[in-house]
Amino acid sequence: MSFGVSLKKKISDPDFRYEFYTTDKVVKPESDRHYYWFKGGRIHSSEYGTGGELLHDEFFKYYHSNQLAEAGKFKNGIKEGYWKSWFENGTLQSKAYWNDGQLDGSYYAYDETGNLVEEGRYKNNKKHGRWINHTKGDTLKYKHGELVVKKVKVKDTLTNGNKKPGFFKRLFSKKDKPEEKEVNKTQQQVKPKSAVQQAGEQDKQSFFGRLFSKKDKADKTKQPKQQKVKKEKVKKQSQPKDDKPGFFKRLFGKKDKKQVSNG
């Protein structure tokens, strides 16, 4: 039994007008695929089933301004090969590749001015690999449709003695351990002195010990001399003076001697 392809059909709706072909072939729907068919003057689409003449071969969709909106090919009701879409101003909107009714390969999306907005790849109708959003400046990685999130490793980077701790470790250490910080500060204040420091302090003590020892000895040597001088001074003051008699004593002494001689 042969299956034929219909003549080109043309229909329209409030937004677009369409030109396409159909086939009367009956197929068994496969999972994860969208099927397109024509029935009752309209194009229908669903997953896992059909209900009319399957779209087949070239397909064109136009704006009512006659500007091309979308173009591609169908094969027994599913998309196949390269498909493109355009904005009403004629600027390319998207470009994708379909394999057996599933997105597979490169995908590109643009804005109305023609700037590339997003690019990536599909595998079996799912995002796979690196996707770049040029508008947001983001680059994401997918694996079979699942977003791959890099795990942040929080580890101590002080193993080589030259690096600072990781950001999160420093953050939570400051937040959760203020008391430990105070303890560490106290420990640093009472940190045992090294042998070099102790030796230095002993040298200082020895130096000052010798200095003050010399001073004390000098004071002790000087003190007996001062006491001796003081005692001699007191002794002289207590002894009777050997000075000559006063003027009146000498005067009357001479007078008494004359009277004795006259008698």
From TrEMBL:
Pfam families: MORN_2. Residues 178-263 are annotated as: Disordered. Gene3D superfamilies: Histone H3 K4-specific methyltransferase SET7/9 N-terminal domain. Residues 185-200 have a biased composition (Polar residues). Coiled coil: none annotated. Residues 223-238 have a biased composition (Basic residues). Residues 213-222 have a biased composition (Basic and acidic residues). InterPro entries: MORN_2. This is Membrane-binding protein.
